[in-house]
Amino acid sequence: MGTEIELDVEGQTEPPICGFKSPTTSKATTRSPTLTTLNTGTIIGEECEYRADDDATTTTTGTGPGGLPSFTPEAAHTLSVPDVCAFLRTDPENGIDDDEAARRLQHHGPNKVEGAKGLSLWTILLRQVSNSLTLVLVITMVLSFAISDHIEGGVIAAVILLNIIVGFLQDYRAEQTIQALYALSAPTCKVIRSGVTSTIKAETLVPGDIVRLGVGDVVPADLRLATSINLSTDEALLTGESLPVSKHAEVVMARDRDVPLGDRSNMVYSASTITRGRATGIVVSTGMGTEVGKIAGLLRDSNGGRNKTRVNKEEMGTLRSLVVRARNGMRVLLGLDGTPLQVTLSKFALLLFALAILLAIIVFSVSKFDVTDEVLIYGICVAVAVIPESLIAVLTIATALGTRAMARGNVVIRKLAALEAVGGVTNICSDKTGTLTQGKMVTKKVWLANGTEVEVLGTTHPFDPTSGSVSIGGEVFSLADHGMKDPEEAIGAKGENLKEFLESIALCNNAVVTKAEEAGTYSAIGEPTEIALQTFAMRFGMGKSSVLAVVDGQSQQQLLAEYPFDSSCKRMTVVYTSTESGGAGIACAYTKGALEALLPLLDASNEQKVEIVAKAEALAAQGLRVLCVAKRSVNGALFQAGNDVSATPEKEKASASIFPERSSIEMHLTFLGLAGIYDPPRLESAAAVQKCQAAGITVHMVTGDHVKTATAIACEIGILRSDRLQNGTEVMVASAFDSLSDAEIDALESLPLVLARCSPTTKVRMVEAMHRRKAFCVMTGDGVNDSPALKKSDVGIAMGLSGSDVAKEAADMVLTDDNFASIVTAIEEGRRLFDNIQKFLLHLLISNIAQVILLLIGLSFKDNDGMSVFPLSPLEILWANLVTSSFLALGLGLEDAQPDVMQRPPHDLQVGIFTRELIVDKFVYGTAMGGLCLAAFTSVAYGMSGADGLGEGCNEDWTSECGVAFRARATTFATLTFLLLVTAWEAKHFTRSLFNMHPEKYSGPLSVLKTVWQNKFLFGAVSAGFVICFPVIYIPVINHVVFKHNAITWEWGVVMACVVVYVAIIEGWKALKRRTLKAKMVTGVGMEGV
């Protein structure tokens, strides 16, 4: 065990007292001595070549001085500054001139990262028609128009158009919302051209430009550092590293071309942020040639599908590549490449289409293939009856309404299919920094020299010193509740040691934390670690501004000197004197830094040092970055000569030479305490993870952060259990995971729950491993480094506030509030939608099965000419399918989530939406409905048949002989309509009785009324279906000419009898299922006891 030794702290917002760390520069016309052997195109000490015909990401400026080979940005970190300048023909002090910049801009193009493909209006439109069900409807529409059935064809065309319009508008609005969230690229930057510094648009940068960087700047392109002063950058969006990384211009990695991006300390990359110091850098690549651009390019080339075959003409012949492309295109067109529900419904539509053809053939065979107009119409009617025309429209509208509900919950759905897909997830792979955590540092724990422990509890905002509470020696003080004891008073209660510690971290600090007067919110500038320490001191009213408060026109403390943080010594020291001593007396040196750097300098016994190390290791084991804080008294007179500190490097060097040596000040230090700092979890993360686990969803953390930090956070939010850490595969480092072959990964008992130090490739391999295990996974993330995995996963979810543009482009969903808990809301909504899809799918298929049974057996009903009489007319079939059933199905799609929706495991992806229960139910209910409709028709047709029988030609026109046939058809239509209305309420739950559907909410004989009123849209749809049935049957002309039925009287008794019998059958079937389910549960309990 040990403490974290890499301490990237001490952000500078004012010039430090040390000179530039830069190598000796040379003019662009001076040939570097290290390049004298480069005419062969090879760097000395490294086997890598620079060719003019490299890929599109290569930045080339022609042949370098003296015939030098072309330049590749990937090797910039292996070259010295003079070498890079020689290659790019630029001057590190004066840059290039405007004419040369214009020429290079024309050659390289603007410094912009192009978005991923798939945002065009054509692509969005293609999404709406790329499914088999739509194609089947199109074929049905064409056949309807072909036989001059314009009413049927027009209705189906309206359904197709409605689906396309609703889906297109939803996807288009989602894309517009995503566009409004893009805010990654730097709009302007400072550049040196012809020796003059000016501010230009970042998109006009070209390779060879010299860029100046300061604290808070967003790096506009990939730069090779030329000079640097205590520089650190935040590369979390690119590498996933939660803490800033120190950068050094003088480093040359001549033999380390393949070193990871995060370890290239002489490079800064586009979209990263400067957190400390200042620097100048040489632009080595712009636009799509940057590291961010390369990832965006991968996304543009990605096909995004799990089942598509990637086409490579070089690896396969032209003919074979065309076949593969055609196959991929056909899969997309038929909807066979998408989410499980999309694929299932597309296959189901193809099955129905085949069944429709079979049924039409059966109809034609009955007439011995003497296909007259009547036979053709009847065959098409039977075929149409088996196809749920309204299914795709109901599915699209229900999903769009669910999307609108999710938008209110801060989730933007970019694709309608993503909403139902997220309901079936089995695994969530989440980034840590900024997703599960807040992405900002907080001082979590402090251990003082006298043994007192201080801990920050329940803070909701890392910059707000009034947020949460503090525990001092076990006593909790609220920072927001002024009714409790003021925390400032605790300083006196716990002794002077706490006050000294707070004073030290406040003064040895360059961060600035301020409160906006109007908004009342806190903001901070500086290095994240220093911000955390400054905020901690402010919690006790001892921030830097308070300690340096002006009294009687004079500050109580005066800065004499600052020894800035340096990676070589890993510590920072400031020297202050009080105004009472006038600067000539005793001054105090305040020091903070890594424990291993300060421990030898402490004036403490070996026993005390052992105790300090033990406590530091205990804090480090909790995933905290440990800082040591100390102080000592020094002679203030030693610093008077060099007290005039200016911002120029020359004066900094001069003043630094007057000050005492750093080593003479940083010695015999008095230990004050240890500070444990970390990136805290979001308050809602633990509850969200717990909900996921209760729902049978496994949460994985895949992060670029250190394994110890990742493990601590995972334990804190519940991803890991401390008693399971002995399992070697629960936590893995990416290097170990990447070293395994796919077969070895598949042989693991389970995939790691925590995967640390991840690269983009590691995350993609994790997703692929889940796919091989037949898991359906969600990947969340905010950084550019997350984008390939977001694209590869089944559902990619990006962060809207802190996320990069590239991540948002790659995602299927975007969280506008960056709240991990919103993912749980999305999953719950997805499960609700899946349940409701099953409900309205059951309702629609019951109707189709009933109609098929009715129409096939109806072939035996002959008129006086021996021709089959339609039990239902073509328009009655369409009315039942598109008008009556559609609104009922849509009402079922708006059902509330079941109480146990997040207490059950994900549905079986192998089974999909067509579960055994749904298949059995639809045949039981459909057969019952079809049989009762047949009973209704035969009761009227043969129960009151007169001398005319069923008449002649009653399928086409009304005649006086068609009275019985038309009344029988009206009775059948009314029976079918009323049974569909009852089915809508019965389908609200697959097993519970309609008369006792919500026993946890309603009870008593009138509970059925509350049940049917709960879903007001469905209640309205049932009521409207009931009322509209009467005008359809009774209005003259409409009944005879359009629907081909007649008004009925006593036949309503037959209709009511069929309804009663149907309800009895459904309730009896549900009771049988409940009894069977109860028996299984009892058997399970008995076996469990054994």
Keyphrases for this structure?
single chain; 1090 residues; alpha+beta; nine-stranded antiparallel beta sheet; eight-stranded mixed beta sheet; 36 helices; 28 strands; elongated; disordered N terminus; disordered C terminus
Sequence-ordered SSE layout with sheet pairings:
Blueprint (H helix, E strand, L loop, with lengths): L80 H8 L9 H11 L12 H9 L2 H15 L3 H32 L6 E6 L2 E6 L8 E4 L8 E13 L1 H4 L5 E3 L19 E2 L4 E13 L5 H11 L16 H16 L6 H27 L6 H13 L5 H18 L2 E3 L2 H7 L4 E4 L1 H5 L5 E7 L4 E5 L11 E4 L2 E4 L8 H8 L1 H12 L4 E4 L6 E4 L2 H11 L5 H4 L2 E2 L2 E2 L1 E10 L4 E8 L7 E8 L1 H4 L7 H16 L3 E11 L13 H10 L3 H4 L4 E9 L6 H10 L3 E5 L4 H11 L13 E3 H5 L3 H6 L6 E3 L3 H13 L4 E5 L5 H6 L2 E5 L5 H6 L2 E3 L5 H37 L16 H20 L22 H26 L21 H24 L20 H8 L1 H19 L3 H5 L8 H39 L1
Parallel strand pairs: 9-23, 9-26, 23-25, 24-25, 26-27, 27-28
Antiparallel strand pairs: 1-2, 1-3, 3-7, 4-5, 4-6, 4-7, 8-28, 10-11, 10-22, 11-12, 12-13, 14-15, 16-17, 18-19, 19-20, 20-21, 21-22
Helix pairs in contact: 3-5, 4-5, 5-11, 5-30, 9-10, 10-29, 10-30, 11-12, 11-29, 11-30, 12-29, 15-16, 22-29, 29-30, 29-31, 30-32, 30-34, 31-32, 31-36, 32-34, 32-36
Write up what this structure looks like:
- The chain is of the alpha+beta class and 1090 residues long.
- The chain has a 9-stranded antiparallel β-sheet. It has an 8-stranded mixed β-sheet with strand order 8-28-27-26-9-23-25-24, with helices on both faces. Strands 1, 2, 3, 4, 5, 6 and 7 form a 7-stranded antiparallel β-sheet that branches.
- Helix 5 packs parallel to helix 30.
- The longest helix has 39 residues, at 1051-1089.
- This is P-type Na(+) transporter.
- Pfam families: Cation_ATPase, Cation_ATPase_C, Cation_ATPase_N, E1-E2_ATPase, Hydrolase_3.
- It comes from Neurospora hispaniola.
